[in-house]
Each structure stands twice: as structure tokens, then as C-alpha cells.
Design a protein that fits this description.
Blueprint (H helix, E strand, L loop, with lengths): L13 H10 L6 H7 L3 E3 H4 L8 H7 L4 E11 L2 E11 L7 H21 L14 E5 L5 E4 L1 H9 L12 H14 L9 E4 L5 E8 L12 E7 L2 H11 L4 H11 L4 H8 L3 H15 L4 H12 L5
Antiparallel strand pairs: 1-2, 2-3, 4-5, 4-8, 6-7, 7-8
């Protein structure tokens, strides 16, 4: 999630929402919705009509005059490609079941469309290899930026007036770093962010400590580096709708393995490998292994201008 869009909401406390999203074990969080197998859920339904049991309802949603929340995850083959949250005024009651069902259907379609939008372009431009460095204060506002960080922010421009002044993904990476500094469980997954011109960056975040020692500091340094092929190739393969097993086969092929080597490494028969290959070729629109490798690698390593 790179941005927040609002027409008339006061987003001055958006930092609190980011903090709750990372730190609170709440009802109907985006990961919980995804694990449940549905694509949309309301807080009223998840709480069985008692939304006051939700931390974010008590601390945020109700304070802004809302009585219910509808969340949607844009899930499709290969992963979750986006998410959204909608609020409903208290005097309008909970979201009706038909609206949740409509959101569920729409989220499924949006997941497919967003997945397709991540397919590698035919002629991508080169990415500047210089890392971008952000120094964020306790409210995830930038205290200092490197030159490449300023340029990257412009390429990640968010039109909505949030108080963060950095994309949500960067703020979330900072909050995860703070959790790790406190010894709390933190997802061990790479945080990737995509610019408007189609380039991927990998985010690395770490808290800062005073030189004299002491507890975990509130300031966080976030470094954004151009994502390596190892981090981007799985995204491209997932964008084609490959299953997890098909992605494993395709990755080994791209690395140069033949059918026998793929079968040995994945503990399957060569015939099963061939079946997976047929599915991979059909979904990616190629007819040969060399074409598959060329299509993916060209997107990652375009020829010089």
C-alpha cells in the first residue's frame, strides 16, 4: 500500500492508524481477512455486532463519527496486490451484507487487474542504483533525506494530504523496525515499493540508538535500494498467475536448470515437471524456455540506451 486517498477526512492522525495496523492484534486486520479465505469483511460482522471490542474502533473509528468499517484485500494468484478500507457513519448503521458481498466480488476482480498491472513492461527504463536514505522521527516524518531519497519521493508522489509526508509502505517499514527493536514478532518478508514509472525498490529499516546506550530509539533510518532480480522475479511470475509450484519450476529454469535438475531439486518426476512447464508457458505466453528467461530478464536488465 503506497498511498491514502481521501476527499474530506482529516488525516492528521493517520500516523496513529499506521501504528495500530502494525502493533495491535485486532479484529479483521488485512492479514486475518486474507487468511480467512474471503476478500472483504466488515468490522461489525467480524466482531459479531460488538465493534467496541476492536482496538482501532475504540481509538479511531468511533472518534471520527463512524460506526463500521469495511475492509477489502485485492488478493489474486501469487499474493495480495493491494487493500482498501471504507468507513460508514454511525447514524447509517452497519454495512449491509449485500455491500460486503459486492465488495468481495469487486476485490477479487481488482486483485486480478492489479496483478496484471505488474506484468513486466516491454521496454523498461534503467533504475538509478544509488540508495535512497530517509531519517524519520517518531511520527514517521522525514528529518533528513539524501538526494536520491528526494528524487524517489517525487516518483512516489502521494496526492492525498497525509501527515506522514512519506509513502505508507515506508512508514510501515519503520514501524516494523521499531517492533523488532522491542523484541516483538515481526514479519520476515521483504518490503518492496513500486514507483509510478514501474521500478521496484527494496526497503531496509533500522532504529537508531544514542551512543551512550539505552533503550530502543524512536528515530528510524530507512534505506531504499533498487530491488535485485531475486526480489523482483517472483513478483513478475506471480503477476502472470503462476501457482507457487509453477513459480518454483520457472525460477529454476531461469537459473539454468534442465528438466532432470528441476525434478531432483523439487522431488518430482520429469513428467510432472513437463506438466508444470506447459502451464508456465501457457500463462506467460511463450513456447520455449529461452523465451521465458529472455522475457523476464529483459524486464530486469534492459540494454543500455
Amino acid at each position: 500500500m503506497n498511498s491514502v486517498q481521501s476527499d474530506d477526512l482529516n488525516l492528521g492522525q493517520f500516523q496513529d492508524a499506521v501504528h495500530l495496523e502494525v502493533w495491535a492484534d485486532d479484529l479483521a486486520t488485512f492479514p486475518k481477512i486474507r487468511r480467512s479465505g474471503v476478500h472483504a469483511e466488515t468490522l461489525s460482522r467480524a466482531s459479531r455486532g460488538a465493534p467496541q471490542h476492536s482496538i482501532r474502533f475504540r481509538e479511531q473509528i468511533s472518534r471520527y463519527g463512524f460506526g463500521d468499517e469495511l475492509r477489502a484485500v485485492f488478493d489474486a494468484a501469487g499474493g495480495m496486490w493491494g487493500c482498501a478500507a471504507f468507513m460508514r457513519a454511525t447514524d447509517r448503521g452497519p454495512f449491509p451484507a449485500r455491500q460486503r458481498e459486492l465488495a468481495d466480488t469487486a476485490a477479487r476482480l481488482l486483485g486480478q487487474l492489479l496483478r496484471a498491472s505488474h506484468l513486466p513492461p516491454e521496454e523498461p527504463a534503467r533504475t538509478d542504483p544509488t540508495p535512497a536514505v530517509f531519517l524519520l522521527d517518531r511520527h514517521n516524518r522525514p528529518r533528513a533525506l539524501s538526494g536520491p531519497a528526494e528524487e524517489l519521493l517525487a516518483r512516489l508522489a502521494d496526492p492525498s494530504p497525509t501527515s506522514l509526508r512519506v509513502p505508507t509502505a515506508i512508514a510501515m517499514a519503520a514501524e516494523h523496525a521499531r517492533r523488532a527493536a522491542h523484541g516483538l514478532p515481526t514479519p520476515h518478508v521483504p518490503v518492496r515499493i513500486r514507483t509510478h514509472d514501474g521500478h521496484w525498490y527494496l526497503l531496509h529499516a533500522a532504529t537508531l540508538r544514542e551512543t551512550a546506550g539505552g533503550g530502543a530509539a524512536d528515530e528510524v533510518t530507512v534505506v531504499a535500494t533498487p530491488a535485485s532480480p531475486a526480489h523482483v522475479i517472483p513478483l513478475h511470475l506471480a503477476a502472470y498467475g503462476l501457482t507457487a509450484r509453477e513459480q518454483e519450476v520457472a525460477l529454476l529454469l531461469i537459473r539454468g536448470a534442465d528438466t532432470r535438475e528441476v525434478a531432483q531439486q523439487l522431488a518430482m518426476t520429469p513428467y510432472t515437471v513437463q506438466d508444470h512447464l506447459k502451464a508456465v508457458f501457457t500463462k506467460t505466453g511463450v513456447t520455449r524456455r529461452q523465451e521465458l528467461t529472455a522475457r523476464i530478464m529483459l524486464a530486469l536488465n534492459p540494454p543500455p540506451d
